Inverse folding.
């Protein structure tokens, strides 16, 4: 009895063990994350209120591509940065026009990791990693454009062109363009065995992991592309074959020598400093033998995706007649899931598309011209070893008013028969163009377009991510031409539309949330209200 006796707890005392466990699981009531999630929940409710509108607060135009990253709009090849947070355009920085040799090829936004000690105070603020045409990797302050770090990658032996994440915000991959010999060299019989170069970095602090060659002597002659994602080296071939290799195992097995940025090195007779001009980075991962194959599949146009739980993959059978048909198979044994052949049988100019839901639920989003199918994987009844594809919910385009009769009667009573039917994505019918997921608000956004007379009109619909219920519809006031290239971003209380017109003319339309119960015709009317033009930093903005 004495052993089981517990001392009386003092008033207000806490169970420290339970507190630590709950905090480790993210349930600590005073944690900043809990407050942030509550705030986002409130913001979602405000956005979905009927009285909340989205107003086109300003517009600008450019002769060069426009990019958007986390509340920042980049123009003039990242030389100009504008905050999209304020209702009026606020230029964060404006750099002088750069020369062609300083042109930026690609960029990634780098954000501070939580819970880590970093070597420099500047590391705790957002920065932009950019890759220049002359093989320089620069880390810039996202707010001022100041150069924080500068790394020289390589000389003329390769041209680095692409930045991507292996692990988001942790491991970055820099890929070269495909090495091709000049026509004269090929006619002279000179052989080019190295197809691509990959340089891999750990970020914040920026540290060099290694550089490797993708060599046709190891991977074959028909390699067309290569990527690294989630620790997997993905190699694609001209005949539709996709092969997967363990990148970590490759780097451990074939790493000749590790190198640190800024340190002197003596490598193959060259003496220099790692990451400094003119030597750049050593190619210190030399693959001398074919690495063990993890998985391979054949798919039309190398289209291959992995996701779901348990792991599945999506392919299109490698024949042109199967274009638009998707197979969902188990990664474990390549077994086709029950109901795993998806074919919308669309009669449209643009094909339907499919991908694993980015919310990590394991679901699948299949988008056609007039419907969005959200699908889920579940166990087959009485057979736990097989999975089946089942519908979670469907979102339909609003085509109640569309008429596609093959026979019409004129006012005089004459019967007219149509010789053709409308396409599924005919501009006169509401058609889905973009489907995205806002992870912080847990909303599924779908952009639909309808051509009314000579003008196209678009609206962004916000749906409950769990059940697909329509919660909000946001009209875009500018005319939408389906022949132009468009990007639309929904980022919490902001909607951004970037449009590319012919002759490299770009426009950026910024919409912000307006909480005003009074009537605001400008938020919903497609008429052209009186606009004001203002010049800031040499750039014209339209209000």
């Amino acid at each position: 009895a004495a052993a089981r006796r517990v001392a009386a707890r003092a008033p207000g005392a806490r169970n420290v063990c339970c507190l630590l466990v709950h905090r480790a699981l993210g349930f600590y009531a005073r944690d900043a994350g809990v407050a942030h999630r509550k705030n986002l929940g409130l913001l979602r409710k405000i956005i979905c209120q009927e009285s909340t509108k989205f107003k086109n607060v300003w517009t600008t135009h450019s002769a060069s591509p426009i990019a958007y990253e986390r509340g920042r709009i980049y123009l003039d090849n990242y030389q100009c940065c504008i905050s999209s947070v304020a209702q009026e355009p606020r230029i964060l920085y404006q750099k002088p026009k750069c020369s062609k040799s300083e042109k930026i090829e690609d960029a990634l936004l780098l954000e501070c990791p939580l819970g880590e000690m970093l070597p420099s105070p500047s590391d705790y603020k957002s920065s932009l990693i950019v890759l220049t045409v002359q093989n320089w990797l620069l880390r810039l302050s996202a707010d001022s454009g100041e150069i924080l770090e500068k790394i020289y990658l390589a000389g003329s032996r390769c041209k680095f062109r692409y930045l991507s994440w292996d692990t988001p915000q942790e491991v970055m991959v820099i890929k070269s363009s495909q090495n091709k010999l000049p026509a004269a060299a090929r006619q002279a019989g000179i052989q080019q065995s190295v197809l691509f170069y990959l340089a891999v970095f750990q970020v914040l602090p920026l540290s060099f992991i290694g550089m490797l060659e993708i060599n046709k002597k190891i991977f074959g002659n028909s390699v067309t592309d290569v990527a690294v994602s989630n620790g997997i080296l993905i190699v694609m071939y001209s005949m539709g074959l996709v092969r997967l290799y363990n990148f970590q195992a490759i780097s451990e097995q074939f790493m000749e020598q590790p190198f640190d940025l800024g340190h002197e090195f003596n490598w193959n007779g060259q003496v220099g400093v790692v990451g400094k001009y003119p030597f750049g980075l050593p190619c210190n991962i030399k693959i001398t033998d074919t690495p063990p194959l993890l998985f391979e599949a054949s798919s039309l146009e190398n289209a291959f995706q992995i996701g779901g739980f348990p792991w599945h993959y999506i392919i299109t059978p490698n024949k042109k007649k199967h274009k638009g048909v998707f197979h969902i198979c188990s990664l474990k044994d390549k077994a086709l899931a029950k109901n795993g052949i998806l074919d919308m049988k669309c009669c449209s100019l643009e094909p339907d598309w499919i991908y694993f839901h980015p919310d990590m639920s394991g679901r699948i989003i299949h988008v056609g011209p007039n419907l969005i199918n959200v699908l889920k994987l579940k166990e087959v009844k009485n057979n736990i070893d097989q999975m089946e594809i089942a519908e979670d919910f469907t979102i339909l385009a609003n085509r109640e008013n569309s008429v596609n009769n093959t026979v019409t009667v004129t006012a005089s009573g004459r019967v007219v028969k149509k010789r053709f039917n409308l396409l599924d994505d005919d501009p006169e019918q509401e058609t889905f163009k973009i489907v995205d997921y806002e992870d912080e608000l847990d909303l599924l956004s779908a952009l639909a377009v309808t051509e009314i007379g000579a003008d196209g009109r678009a609206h962004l619909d916000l749906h409950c991510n769990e059940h697909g219920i329509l919660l909000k519809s946001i009209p875009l006031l500018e005319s939408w031409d389906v022949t132009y290239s468009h990007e639309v971003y929904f980022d919490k209380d902001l909607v951004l539309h970037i449009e590319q017109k012919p002759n490299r003319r770009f426009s950026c339309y910024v919409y912000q949330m307006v909480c005003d119960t009074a009537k605001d015709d400008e938020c919903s009317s497609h008429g052209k209200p009186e606009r004001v033009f203002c010049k800031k930093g040499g750039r014209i903005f339209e209000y």
User: Anything to note?
Assistant: The radius of gyration is 27 Å. Helices lie at 16-24, 32-48, 183-187, 216-219, 247-254, 521-524.
